[in-house]
Fold each of these.
Amino acid sequence: MKLYDFELAPNPRRVRMFLAEKGITLPMVQVNLRHGEQFGEDFKRDNPAMLVPALVLDDGSLLTETMAICRYFEALQPQPPLFGTTPREQADVEMWSRRAELEGFLAVAEALRNSVERFKDRALPGPRNYAQIPALVERGKSRARAFLDDLEARLATHACVTGDAFTVADITAFVTVEFAGWVDVKPAAHHTALQRWHAAIAARPSAKA
Amino acid sequence: MKLYDFELAPNPRRVRMFLAEKGITLPMVQVNLRHGEQFGEDFKRDNPAMLVPALVLDDGSLLTETMAICRYFEALQPQPPLFGTTPREQADVEMWSRRAELEGFLAVAEALRNSVERFKDRALPGPRNYAQIPALVERGKSRARAFLDDLEARLATHACVTGDAFTVADITAFVTVEFAGWVDVKPAAHHTALQRWHAAIAARPSAKA
């Protein structure tokens, strides 16, 4: 088993934090996305989706998608549980993970990839090229700001995103908040609950993974 | 417990198919999205996210997000398993569910919501308004066609999306293929594996749910 990783990219960071919380280590192969290493022939042979993170299993098959990789390790090693345990907790983790991704993470990615020169014709990740759409930059930032507001409202009454327990939804939301800084969307002074939560997660050893 | 549903919309259909496969029935409340019933004060009180499907639990709390609702019922009633059983199966279901959603379903939604008059200023679902971006129409269709090609490649070697067993990934991919028809993206004559798979799922009783 080996994990294709890139230290500077937010999705691989989610996987590294998840593994650190589980205490799992595995061989990592760095793919420098800023140098275009995902387009190299060697990498494409292993990983036709040209995505990072990507987990190559011992039979040579490929697992892509951050959350699929995390779920694989959750199933292999359930402790500590990061996807909830009761039906309600599991559902809440799924709901908040998705909200953090669809409303937060993807909005930030949209603002970034449609504005930065190095993503010209690469406005979406994956094997196909798509041109940048300038109108998505401001919309992405606006959506990211709305997500921070929603996260603040949630964290005003909950210690962690889904309740008292730290879960993978906190990892996704935390990495999203950090990622939002790349497009100059930052927690505001009145986001006090969000800042308390952010500081608590930043202090976990996994935040350095 | 009650489920807010709208018979004509694709996400609620995914939940209805899932429940039908499980043999679960529960009270449904129709919210006619085409008549703007999601903006009504009664609905917003229960469901500030203004989304359908939405599950109101017995304690009055709200579960949104199609996949969170499905996972809730999977946890409550594991048989028949629709999210995989082994770690590898669970990971594959997650990977393919996400690919079907992010690369397929969201692309179709993008093409539809940015082109149709009734979604003017409602280019994204939820409580906030966003203007249409015309450039997303063609990009959405192009991505949806690419998804059909990828699905064909996968189904050429697998009976169902994740292998031999029917899972929630098939539900999402099936509803996505039907939804793509709304923006005139349809399986091509050479998508023979996809058409074989589509016909098999269309013949399941749950496809009528």
Amino acid sequence: MRLLLANPNTSPSITGLMERAARATASPGTDIKAVTAKFGGAVIGSRTEMVIGDFASLSLLAEEAPGCDAVIVAAALDSGLRAAKEMLQVPVLGLTEAAIHMACLCGGRFGLVVTSARTSTIMREMIAGYGLSSRLAGIRWIGRDPAAIYGDPEGSADAIAEAARRLAEEDLADSIVLIGAIMAGVPDRIRDAVPVPVIEGVSAGVVLCEGMARLGLRKARAGSFAAPSGRKVTGLDPALEALLRG
Amino acid sequence: MRLLLANPNTSPSITGLMERAARATASPGTDIKAVTAKFGGAVIGSRTEMVIGDFASLSLLAEEAPGCDAVIVAAALDSGLRAAKEMLQVPVLGLTEAAIHMACLCGGRFGLVVTSARTSTIMREMIAGYGLSSRLAGIRWIGRDPAAIYGDPEGSADAIAEAARRLAEEDLADSIVLIGAIMAGVPDRIRDAVPVPVIEGVSAGVVLCEGMARLGLRKARAGSFAAPSGRKVTGLDPALEALLRG
Amino acid sequence: MRLLLANPNTSPSITGLMERAARATASPGTDIKAVTAKFGGAVIGSRTEMVIGDFASLSLLAEEAPGCDAVIVAAALDSGLRAAKEMLQVPVLGLTEAAIHMACLCGGRFGLVVTSARTSTIMREMIAGYGLSSRLAGIRWIGRDPAAIYGDPEGSADAIAEAARRLAEEDLADSIVLIGAIMAGVPDRIRDAVPVPVIEGVSAGVVLCEGMARLGLRKARAGSFAAPSGRKVTGLDPALEALLRG
Amino acid sequence: MRLLLANPNTSPSITGLMERAARATASPGTDIKAVTAKFGGAVIGSRTEMVIGDFASLSLLAEEAPGCDAVIVAAALDSGLRAAKEMLQVPVLGLTEAAIHMACLCGGRFGLVVTSARTSTIMREMIAGYGLSSRLAGIRWIGRDPAAIYGDPEGSADAIAEAARRLAEEDLADSIVLIGAIMAGVPDRIRDAVPVPVIEGVSAGVVLCEGMARLGLRKARAGSFAAPSGRKVTGLDPALEALLRG
Amino acid sequence: MRLLLANPNTSPSITGLMERAARATASPGTDIKAVTAKFGGAVIGSRTEMVIGDFASLSLLAEEAPGCDAVIVAAALDSGLRAAKEMLQVPVLGLTEAAIHMACLCGGRFGLVVTSARTSTIMREMIAGYGLSSRLAGIRWIGRDPAAIYGDPEGSADAIAEAARRLAEEDLADSIVLIGAIMAGVPDRIRDAVPVPVIEGVSAGVVLCEGMARLGLRKARAGSFAAPSGRKVTGLDPALEALLRG
Amino acid sequence: MRLLLANPNTSPSITGLMERAARATASPGTDIKAVTAKFGGAVIGSRTEMVIGDFASLSLLAEEAPGCDAVIVAAALDSGLRAAKEMLQVPVLGLTEAAIHMACLCGGRFGLVVTSARTSTIMREMIAGYGLSSRLAGIRWIGRDPAAIYGDPEGSADAIAEAARRLAEEDLADSIVLIGAIMAGVPDRIRDAVPVPVIEGVSAGVVLCEGMARLGLRKARAGSFAAPSGRKVTGLDPALEALLRG
């Protein structure tokens, strides 16, 4: 199968980081195609950038998804996820969506490690949107932005492990989810220091996309996830317009 | 005060309809400035168009909001609402947000009249996102799209009144919210036929924006609604980029 | 319009404090009529006084509301609010109801500043009753009763600001609601010290009542907020009995 | 033990009906003292009468509860219940509170039979206030007011049984709660026709009060149910004022 | 009446402890029959032992319940409770179920004292299963296992009282529930040190069972608690098999 | 990898049905080992059989899981699931757990098709236990027991498709989950007749187990899913006792 890893941000280095993690996890028969948004934010760090990322995500997917068997929207905020599930004919998962469902399958409640307090609030809203608030044990932030984590992976791993450990011990989290593209590959670094399973979205997304593709679920032909068609739109990229006109 | 009524869709006729309703409701000292998106969808009828509308909304607001004292995002899906609250220095309300809070202030539970089953699902998610699921008595759809309602206001009013009446009598709704830009002015047509208060978003948004502006609430300087600054973005409209760079 | 500000407690000094705040906020065309309960508690500080305040509120409204276009029940516990919405033909809002909906319109979650731990528990129940628990970031109390706040406005403002600041920084509240009649006018004193919007009920109630009155919503003729009539009651004030007999 | 059965309404015939049911259920050592409110509504059928009933309940209890070991607030709306729990030194239960907890102890979800649609809405709010919404399978009303039920017990029993049967079969209720003072004694009439346990509040309240009294739980000395004292109140019945002054 | 107190664990000393507490609480006419499981765990301290305890509970009840009028499943995890309610013709209550409903009847929110962090997580899930999460103020653990508490009742009482006091003062719990068989009799030791009512399951279960038996509720003949019959089972104790074959 | 498919019921024919579905879905490198419980119920159709199934499940897993890389508890009620996740060192999924999480990954809300009204109630409780009530669009039953479905696959497929279609069209379910072992292979039969994705647990469980095994998540060493050890148990199968003694 061919799996699209679509970074809705404009940071190729982060795309590369995720691509390596995806290849390390994928089954032998899975071909990873990693792409990066051509416009928008380098990193999503605000609600405004969320909206831009949602749109950049759809523009990118409209162009790059054809020919792929499944798609990972590769950003913490699951940019444009519900729309992408609607618009495309193949399974689409978000990093956070994939990771928290994998955490649920471990049992009990999960704790989230995020970069900042600001992200914490937005993440809490997202978890509620997925209907999983009752399985959230807590959220802790490490106070480092993605660039700082990228530049100091060792020191950051210590900070992440400490937040994870406190989620397990003080908030009684039964598993830990590391939120964000920058967390690709981090679970391997901190597993010894954290007494419960540690999950991040790229690897979770790869195995879940492989699974969904294998199931061969039929695309919705009715309801709120049926693909739109015959819509009147103007001023968008040709690929996106074509999808909406059907 | 100057109130921006920003239609994130590309339908000037609907903007005109809303503008008339807004002027009919506004206080003497309120100046209404109505604007229409320059790209995107004519109507938001799918999750994909929601994402486009969110982005079109922010682009429009970045250009048109300066100089205004409050903003109504004038579409049923409250396009880009949370981001606009974050990005701008003045109060921003969405049509649905304004209408359901006004309904809450009437007491009890509200029922929603929407155009289609598809909108019903998305609206249920939105109400949950506002934390008001427990005050939702039910959702009923009339099976007409906005163009059909625009073209047949009398016949549509009958269908809307029937749905509203059933929400009150069968679902025990204590008030009725008519969802969407196309509902501007409709409450006056159906009030006699519906035994509970009937609310739509344009008029609710106008009076709530006037009230918020009068309170002079201070813009958040911290937390998840503080305005972003110093963000790296590319490929956007200059006004939007300028706001994010701060 | 004529707006009734009805204090269900027997403290004219607090009524005066609220009246000044209401006049400072009201539109030019709004006439404020402030009245004080003739029996009951000086302050509501227990569940027992809540019940007394609910009844005192209805007795006061039955006598004073005729001729008014909207009503604010001017106490933290929103005394008799749902009954007043049912009984009267005009919009009725409570201090806390008005303030928390205004906070919701700012976006995100709100934090509450209350006077005592005891009030904290009761307020948590009230927020749940309004269906807004998921938008509550936290409650903090300052450990001063209304009389102490009234007697030391400067020192109290510091304590209130400190509680508000911690709600924003530690509980990640996106706005702050100051609970109680005694908080009228306090937001102006603490805005510089608190990094998110600060709201109290008198000013919020005034602008929301003005907005509701302008909308001209039709009074419910059916459902759980239709006015009662033909009820058999004895031993009440004549005005209240007359309303129930219809 | 001495058990006070306090009807906060002014209908002695209903008090008598409940008293007979209470005596039929009580243990040999339990002495039932049944009293009726001296002012207020004959029946609570609106939100306004709820408030009056809450106050009438406290006035009645302040005078009649001394010397009793437990109290049943004997009306569907559990008039003044939380305040009475706070104000008195002995256990206090409401009819609906007692019945729904007894239903929970039967397992699964309960269905409610009420008199009218209007009561249905208010009852839904009450169940939410008790935190038990997730155990509510449904509410059905029979469209007869208490006077009609009192005047036609046989015909009413058929209507009640039909509502109960549909709750069990269509809404999958695992038990049935009959709401209101008028339902005292009704379970015996309909048990054969309903395939799940049928519960009403007077008998449930009697056995639960007996149990609480036997446990000898200590009255709260702190928190939101500690008895108030030193409160400034005016214009109330002497007994109620004395309790609040402490 | 004859009340079965069935310990699903294999610890006769704990059964004895509970039996003494049950006799101290029971009405004169209540005969307590205390029995202990013949296989399974000495104490339930893990999810695996929960499953074993559920099964041991049913095996024990199938053999011992005939001839009894009500049953207490006498372990913190309410072993096999819903199945026992289904399988038997008489009321069945669990220790935790009984205690938390008794706490609800005291009003407000309850706090839980448990032995360990591990139990805390499982107990939180149980409270959610009973639909009572919104009435849970907090959970605190004392870090002693049942054997340690049994061996040092005085020192343990101090630790329990401290946890209870903090639940009341810091978490604003309106009542305290002590979780587990080992807590039988403990409320009497700590009442003076805790400012809100203190409840444990054996005594709560006794009075609630007495009350349910007195009500004479009819066993469900339909729905999810009707007794199974005609089921094909093999390899179980004869008594349990007989019940399932009907 | 080696995947254990463990049927906690005593019906080898159903095990065979599931084994064929599992093999049809599994990756080339996955070896399926299908086993059947040696005691308990032929089918789980009551709460009592649930408890027996939970225990039979653990007994079976203690003996058969060693040497396997992941486990599917292959019954609708996810027998003993949380305990198995705790007890074993490898991932364990239940049929219903797997299917509903796969449905969530399709987006929106799912509808459930079950065999009977009785199962409907129990399934609603299970979905709540997984924290996913807000994603449940509805439950419909077909009124046929597993034996009837097994004996008439064609006619049953029509009944199942009809229930699924109504869930999509009337309850607005965005995907359909077929509940129970007997549904293995059924999605292929009804996909053309149902306009949204159709999911059942065996195939969902296989791909999710493969994914979890590939991720190599570390087993919890602390918290409520750490494996128990040093527990005192008697009278169990040697394999189960050995696991608990550690």
